[in-house]
Amino acid sequence: MKTLQEIMGRVSVPLVTPFHANEDVNHEALGQLVDYIITKNLCDSIIVTGTTGQFYALTDEERLEVWKTVKAATRGRVPLVAGVGSASTRASIRFTRVAEEMGFDVTMCVLPYYGKPTQEGIRRHFEAVAAATKLPVLIYNIPLFTGVNMEPETLKQLLNVPNIRGIKEEAGIQPTQATLFALCTPKDFSIYCGDDTMVLQVLPQRGVGVVSGGSQVIGDCMKAMIDAYFKGDNAEASRIYFKMAPFFASLNQNGRINPVPILRGAIEKVSGIKIGPPRSPQVAATAQEMAVTGAILDGIRKA
Questions:
Q1: Residue 79 maps to which CATH number?
Q2: Do the beta carbons of residue 192 and residue 138 sit within 8 Å?
Q3: Residue tagged active-site, from 36, 56, 116, 168
């Protein structure tokens, strides 16, 4: 069985979902975005309806229509990962089965959110999702948004499930969490950093790559940094890291916890594609915020 890193590569991009001004999904722009990311070589694989795609704000029907659009636009050029996460196990199982039927390569399932299940509940959730498919499963741990955390002992128990093949780790600024996961999992279990700002901290802890929303904008830089690291050129990797860092920091201006609104504006700036506003209750980036982020992006391109 292939490792997730062999399937997904080093840089996997979680797509934003473009919207019209009335917040309806803009499928034309979605197809354009897929083509832009692939032709610009900004990623190795694409994740559909993850957190960056505001899956939680889509209806079930909208989520599946987004999958269809992305699948058609990709045309087999890169592997596709379906975000199947839900607050309920039954819904996650349903999405997982549809993803396999549609020919996705991997399913990514976030920890069940809002209800704050116990570690036993989390374990049972992932066992049920994995049992519903032959596809490899990527666990997605983001306690900042879900309110629950995948404990290392729970992950260790899930290693008994053959098609649970990796984890996207985004436990805030806790690089020790990645260390604990590395200690309790075999080498063929893929650990992806889920935080653009923490990639160089996670790679030495047996990280294989990153799930990077910002790579829809500067994926060329992200790929260059990771390549430099694995070639042993730490000085070059560090140089690129500090080159990118101001951009990532700018996505959280004015106390924003969710970087998606400003990220959407940044994608519009570099691609020319009308990404549109985020779906409510997220609020679009202000002109002042975009002026800051835009100036940083201009500086990155001149560097």
A1: 3.20.20.70
A2: yes
A3: 168
- Taking a C-beta distance cutoff of 8 angstroms, is the pair 120, 127 a contact? no
Residues of the chain falling short of pLDDT 70: 172-176
Query: Domain limits at 138?
Result: 4-231
Write out pLDDT tens, residues 87-99: 999 999 999 999 9
pLDDT tens string 73-131: 999 999 999 999 999 999 999 999 999 999 999 999 999 999 999 999 999 999 999 99
Q: pTM of this prediction?
A: 0.96
Please tell me the predicted confidence (pLDDT) of residue 170.
86
What DSSP string runs through 189-233?
A: SEEEE--GGGHHHHGGGTEEEEE-TTHHHHHHHHHHHHHHHHTT-
The two three-digit tokens of residue 40, written as one number: 């610009």
State the catalytic residue, choosing from 140, 192, 229, 241: 140
Establish if 26 belongs to a structural domain. yes
**Residue 156 known to be catalytic:** no
Counting the structural domains of the chain, the total is: 1
Q: Phi/psi of residue 90, each to 5°?
A: -60, -40
113 is catalytic: no
